[in-house]
C-alpha cells in the first residue's frame, strides 16, 4: 500500500515538474513573439480619455474587390507609420450583393473581416452606417442584419452599428468631450429624416455637455460635384438647417465614388470619401466651393486635437494626396477657417 502511494506521488510530482516547464516555455515563447511583433500586441488606446483622436473614414467599400483590399492595405500601412488609430468609420454601402444579407452571410468575411485584418485594423472598432445598398429591409423594421451583427458581437466584434442612427463621444479634454460624431441613416424618408435631424439637434444643441468638435456622418452627399450632383435628397431641406444651426464642423459622407472636399460659407465642411473599393465616378460639375477632387481609390484620415482638426486624404498607394486643417480658434462655419496645407 505504501509502495503504491509512493509511486503515485512520484508520478504526480513528475507531472507537476513537466507542467511548470511547459508554462515557463509558453510564457517565454509569447514574450519572444511580442518582442519581434510588438504591433500585434499593442493595447488599443482608450478613445474615451484620449487628448487626441485619430480615425479613418471611407464609404462604398463593400465590393470584395482587389481595390477594396488595396485601400485596406494602405490604411494599415498609414496607421502603422503613424502608430495611431482609434477607430474607423464606414460610410455605407458596406455590402454590394444581389441576395439578401444575413448575420451569417459569407460576405461578412470577404467584404469586412478578412479585408481589414492588419495588426492595427484588427484592434479597433468600425463604426458603420447604412448606405442605399444596405437597405435590404424596410426602414420601418428595426431589425437589420448589420445592426444584429453589432448587437450580437459577431465575428471579431469590431462592427459597431447599435441602431440605424446613434452617436458616440471620443476624447476628453479637462472633462469636455473632444469630438462627438452623430451617425445617421440617410436612406430615410422626409419624415424619418426630420426625426433624425431632431436627434442631431438634441446631441449638439440641447445636450448640456458640448463637444469641442462636431461631426455628422451620413451616406448620401449634401453637396457634391460628382455623379450624384443632381440627386434630389431631402437632406438639404431637413438636415442642413440643423447642421447650420448647431454649427457642425464636418459632414462626412460617401455615395459619390471619389474623394472631395467642399467648403461653402455657413455650411459644414463636406468631406466625401466614397472611394473605398467600388468603381469610381468622375467630376461632373465645376464649383468654386470645390477645393479638392480626386477620382481614385483611397480613404481620409482625421486627426482631432483641441485646437486643430486635420484632414488628410490618402490614395490606395498610401500617398497623402491632399490635406486641410480646421482651426478651433476660428468661428465655426466660416470658410476662411479652412487652411490648405499642400
Ligand atoms: Zn451609395
Architecture overview:
By secondary structure, the chain is an alpha/beta fold. It folds into two domains: 1-36; 48-340, Metallo-dependent phosphatases (Purple Acid Phosphatase, chain A, domain 2, 4-Layer Sandwich), CATH 3.60.21. 27% of the residues lie in helices and 23% in strands. The chain is built from six helices and 15 strands. It has helices at residues 2-36, 66-82, 107-113, 145-151, 190-206, 235-245; strands at residues 53-58, 87-90, 126-128, 159-160, 166-173, 176-183, 213-217, 250-253, 259-262, 269-273, 290-294, 298-304, 308-315, 320-327, 338-340. The strands form two sheets. Strands 4-3-2-1-12-13-14-15 form an eight-stranded mixed beta sheet, with helices on one face. Strands 5-6-7-8-10-9-11 form a seven-stranded mixed beta sheet, with helices on one face. The protein starts with a helix and ends with a strand. The model is unreliable at 33-44 (pLDDT under 50). Zinc ion (ZN) binds next to loops.
Amino acid at each position: 500500500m505504501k509502495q503504491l502511494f509512493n509511486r503515485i506521488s512520484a508520478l504526480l510530482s513528475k507531472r507537476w515538474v513537466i507542467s511548470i516547464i511547459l508554462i515557463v516555455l509558453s510564457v517565454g515563447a509569447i514574450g519572444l513573439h511580442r518582442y519581434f511583433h510588438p504591433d500585434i500586441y499593442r493595447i488599443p488606446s482608450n478613445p474615451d480619455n484620449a487628448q487626441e483622436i485619430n480615425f479613418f473614414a471611407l464609404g462604398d467599400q463593400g465590393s470584395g474587390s482587389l481595390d477594396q483590399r488595396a485601400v485596406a492595405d494602405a490604411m494599415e500601412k498609414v496607421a502603422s507609420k503613424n502608430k495611431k488609430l482609434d477607430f474607423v468609420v464606414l460610410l455605407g454601402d458596406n455590402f454590394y450583393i444581389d441576395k439578401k444579407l444575413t448575420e451569417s452571410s459569407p460576405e461578412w468575411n470577404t467584404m469586412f473581416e478578412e479585408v481589414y485584418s492588419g495588426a492595427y485594423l484588427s484592434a479597433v472598432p468600425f463604426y458603420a452606417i447604412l448606405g442605399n445598398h444596405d437597405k435590404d429591409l424596410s426602414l420601418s423594421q428595426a431589425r437589420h442584419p448589420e445592426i444584429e451583427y453589432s448587437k450580437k458581437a459577431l465575428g471579431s466584434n469590431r462592427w459597431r452599428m447599435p441602431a440605424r442612427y446613434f452617436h458616440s463621444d471620443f476624447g476628453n479634454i479637462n472633462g469636455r468631450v473632444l469630438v462627438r460624431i452623430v451617425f445617421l441613416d440617410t436612406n430615410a424618408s422626409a419624415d424619418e429624416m426630420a426625426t433624425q435631424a431632431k436627434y442631431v439637434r438634441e446631441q449638439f444643441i440641447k445636450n448640456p455637455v458640448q463637444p469641442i468638435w462636431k461631426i455628422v456622418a451620413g451616406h448620401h452627399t449634401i453637396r457634391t460635384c460628382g455623379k450624384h450632383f443632381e440627386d434630389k435628397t431631402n437632406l438639404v431641406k431637413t438636415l442642413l438647417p440643423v447642421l447650420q444651426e448647431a454649427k457642425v464642423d464636418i459632414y462626412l459622407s460617401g455615395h459619390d465614388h471619389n474623394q472631395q472636399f467642399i467648403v461653402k460659407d455657413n455650411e459644414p465642411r463636406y468631406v466625401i470619401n466614397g472611394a473605398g473599393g467600388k468603381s469610381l465616378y468622375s467630376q461632373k460639375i465645376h464649383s468654386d466651393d470645390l477645393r479638392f477632387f480626386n477620382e481614385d481609390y483611397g480613404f481620409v484620415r482625421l486627426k482631432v486635437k483641441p485646437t486643430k482638426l486635420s484632414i488628410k486624404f490618402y490614395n490606395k498607394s498610401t500617398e497623402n494626396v491632399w490635406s486641410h486643417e480646421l482651426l478651433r480658434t476660428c468661428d465655426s462655419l466660416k470658410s476662411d477657417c479652412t487652411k490648405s496645407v499642400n
